[in-house]
Amino acid sequence: MEGVKALVVLASIYYPGDGIVAKNNYQTSSRERYDQNAAKCAALQWSLGTMLHLVHGRNNIDVTINDHGPYRRGRALDCTPAVDNALHLGGLGSVRVEPYPPLPKARPLEEQVATWSGASGYRDHAQGQARHATGAAAPRSGNRDHASAKAPERPGPALKQWIAAN
Q: What is the helix (H) or strand (E) element at residue 158, kind and residue range?
């Protein structure tokens, strides 16, 4: 979630017997029936149907906004008892609100442009395609078995003379 900052708000719990829920025959603003066992919240700041990720301490839960409220100054969320139990709020507490995580990006279908060919470095795309078509295994870029790994080559006498001259 690069570029998106989390928001810390005050959240409270609302029960079926709390005024407005009972008056409306336990129907929320989204026309869903109030369910105290569902991970739902009421909010004025977010539109109905918005999914949020709430974090309180080490506890977190994904919720859906299905009602309008709270109507108390300073509060941003009214949560069902299920959310209160999951976050261990104790009725009233501050929660960090994060946007609901997006779906993972799909992997690209095209092949890798450059392939590693050991000592000679990177080969161009055509040579990599030819090796792929023949079924030859590509050499590994690193050897994980350190006991059998070759030591790097030492500079030859010509390189030593050039270094000494410059």
A: helix 157-165
Global pTM reads: 0.56
Residue 154 lies in a domain: no
Pair 93, 120 in one domain: no
Are the beta carbons of 97 and 53 closer than 8 angstroms? yes
Residue 22 φ/ψ, nearest 5 degrees: -70, -35
Torsion of CA 132, 133, 135, 137, to 10 degrees: -20
| Residue 82 belongs to domain with CATH number | 2.40.40.10
Which residues of the chain, if any, have pLDDT below 70? 1-5, 17-24, 102-156, 159, 166
What is the C-alpha to C-alpha distance for residues 69 and 42, in angstroms, rounded to an integer?
5
Q: What is the pLDDT of residue 17?
A: 66
The pLDDT tens digits for 2-47 are 555 679 999 999 877 666 666 667 778 888 888 889 999 999 999 9
Cite the DSSP H helix spans in 80-155: 81-87, 125-134
- Please state the domain count of the chain: 2
